[in-house]
Write a structure and sequence with these properties.
The protein is of the alpha+beta class. It has four helices and eight strands.
Length: about 150
Amino acid sequence: MNAPPTPGMLRALPAEHRQRLMRFAREVSFPQGARIFEEGGTADRFWIIRTGTVALDMRVPGRRPAVIETLGHHELIGWSWLFTPHVWHLGAEATSPVRAHEFDATAIRLLCQEDPALGFAVAQWVGGILAHRLHSARTRLLDLYAPYGSGSLR
């Protein structure tokens, strides 16, 4: 069973908050196969995908990284930048050419501190994405590694 998709920033945040955040956006691109970040690395930025797809993956000892979820248009790449200790919990790789808006995490955290309403909206948005991704990770890992017939998710 899959969790419902989380809304992109365009639907999750009020227009005034989106506009303030977008002032900090910088356009970037990644070729297919590029590692955007590695699990355990410093989470000092985040991205919103404009075009292309990105696979989120997780290291599994003795195996290839397990793909947890594939992200696309308007989706957030990275949530670890918002929470101390600001270390990536997953890895990310471009599975097609990607164009994205990149944001400096420190600047956005400061903006959120200066404007509590914006900070709350961003925390709600990222928190919803985090909940969705944790559910996806659990489901995917059960699909890959749980014994057959071990039970369903509830």
